[in-house]
Structure formats: structure tokens, C-alpha cells
Amino acid sequence: MISRRETILGGALTLLTCTCDCHANVSSVRALGCHVPKLEAPRYFSRTQTATLLQTGSEVIEARSGNPELDRALAQTLGRLSQLFDVLPAFAYYQDGSQPNALATPEPRLQRADGTVLFGLNMLQQLLTRPEHPDASVVAVCAHEFGHIVSYKTGLIDRLMQDNNPFRAEQFADYMAGYYAGFKKLERNDFPAVAFATTQRSFGGVTRGTHGTSEERGSAVIEGFKSIYERKLSAPDAIDAAFQFSMSRQ
Ligand SMILES: [Zn+2]
User: Fold this and answer.
1) Ligand 1 centroid to residue 167 C-alpha, Å
2) According to a count of CB atoms within 10 Å of the terminal CB, is the N or C end of the chain lower?
3) Under 8 Å CB-to-CB from 123, ≥6 apart: which residues?
């Protein structure tokens, strides 16, 4: 049974993801996009408390939203992301200080994990105070970070980052976030895709930065969305398509 909250969390497509300052400094550590190299991960881990492996959706994540129903629904949704993408990341909130952010690293915070998704507590609060689709915006950020975890598990990250420029890795993560959006749209026909597209563009930059312009980010998400909604690609085939799409980006 899918709860109403979980339906909401998965329903609204606010697939912007990574609204962050892409070159966030935490304790003078520089992340590339929202990708944190393994060697730098411990410095972020020192800012975490509880980490959770998200496998079934029934796990209990650190209660930080101020809404127990939302916390449970988020855990369910993250479990679905894990299953759809066939990844097993650890999930932890971290103290992001004055630079709200969400990050992913191939370094496992817990044994057996394929990497770790780090969600800033100030980022969480900022998203939850958004006037439209606050719940979905949280999930959207998570879907993007789970996209990075896919690139770690498959080893594609090495080629996506071969020039040490995070742009293609970010395009890959946006594509996979779009894939999740398409998955939800097929599951629920009244999925508000227009709302997500509008919100996505509102978060993009004028200049490319690390994540791409709003147009580039929107294109990646829409391509990912179409890959399942129109082309009916399986998740493994969509991962291949996401890689080809991202590597073709100049
Ligand atoms: Zn990212």
C-alpha cells in the first residue's frame, strides 16, 4: 500500500535537483559538482550523525523534516529509487552550514553500500519551505544524487569525469532523475510533469557552471523522462542511454 504522502512525494515532478552552490566549500574541501571524491568523503562524514542503508523502503531515516509522516514517506521513496536504479547507497543528513547543498560520494558511509548520499540539513529546510511541491523537491534532489550513485556503481563516473569537469556527470544524474520522473508518470497518469519542468528551469543557471545551464539541465531531465515514458527503456538500458547522452554533450 502506498501512502498518500508517498504518493505526493513521488508525484510532483520538481526534478531540478542540486540547487546548490556547485562548488561548495565545506571545511575548505572542494566538491566537483555534487560529486565528492572518495578521499574527501571523511571530512563530510564528520558532519553526519545517523546513516541508513535504503534497501526496502521500510528503513527509518534520521528524523529531520519535522514531520514524521514525511520522514517515513521519504524513506519509502528512497527505497524505491534504490530498487529502480539497482543501487544501495547509504543516506545521511549532514551539517551544510551556510552553503545548503546535497552531495554524493562513492565512499560508503556504511558497509555494503554503493556509496553515500549526503543531504544538507539547511538544504532540507529550504526545500521544505518552498511554496510549491516542497515534498517533491526533496525527492527530486535525492533522485539526482542517486543518479550519481549509479555512475559510481557502474564505473561510468571515470569516463564522465575524464576531463575532471563535472558537467557530464551532472548531465548523467539529471537524466537519471528524469528517468525516475517518467517511471512515476507511468505509474500515475496525473503526474504533474509540467510543474516539474517549470520548476526545473527556474533553478538552472544562465551560465553553465558545473551543472549546466537551466536549458541544458532541463534537456537532460526531459531526455531521461522520455527514455521510459516514450521509449519504454528498462533501467539498465536507460543507464546506457544516459551515458551516451551525457558523453555527447559538449
Ligand atoms: Zn549532481
Assistant:
1) 9
2) N
3) 19, 20, 96, 100, 101, 102, 141
pLDDT tens-digit series, residues 114-137: 999 999 999 899 888 888 777 778
Confirm whether 3 is domain-assigned. Answer: no
Tell me how far the alpha carbon of residue 219 lies from the centroid of ligand 1, in angstroms. 15
Q: Is 68 inside any structural domain?
A: yes
On whether residue 42 sits in a domain, the answer given is yes
HEC assignment per residue over the chain: CCCHHHHHHHHCCCCCCCCCCCCCEECCEECECCECCHHHHHHHHCCEEEEEECCCCCCCCCCCCCCHHHHHHHHHHHHHHHHHHCCCCEEEEECCCCCCCEEEECCCCCCCCCCEEEEEHHHHHHHHCCCCCHHHHHHHHHHHHHHHHHHHHHCCHHHHCCCCCCHHHHHHHHHHHHHHHHHHHHHCCCCCHHHHHHHHHHHCECCCCCCCEHHHHHHHHHHHHHHHHCCCCCHHHHHHHHHHHHHCCC
Interval between CA 1 and ligand 1 midpoint (Å): 31
Predicted confidence (pLDDT) per residue in 141-191, tens digit: 889 999 999 999 999 999 999 888 889 999 999 999 999 989 988 998 876
Domain total for the chain?
1
9 lies in a domain?
no
Q: What is the pTM of this model?
A: 0.86
89 lies in which domain range? Answer: 15-247
Kindly give the distance from the C-alpha atom of residue 172 to the centroid of ligand 1, in angstroms, as a whole number.
9
Asked whether 18 and 211 are in contact (CB, 8 A), the reply is yes
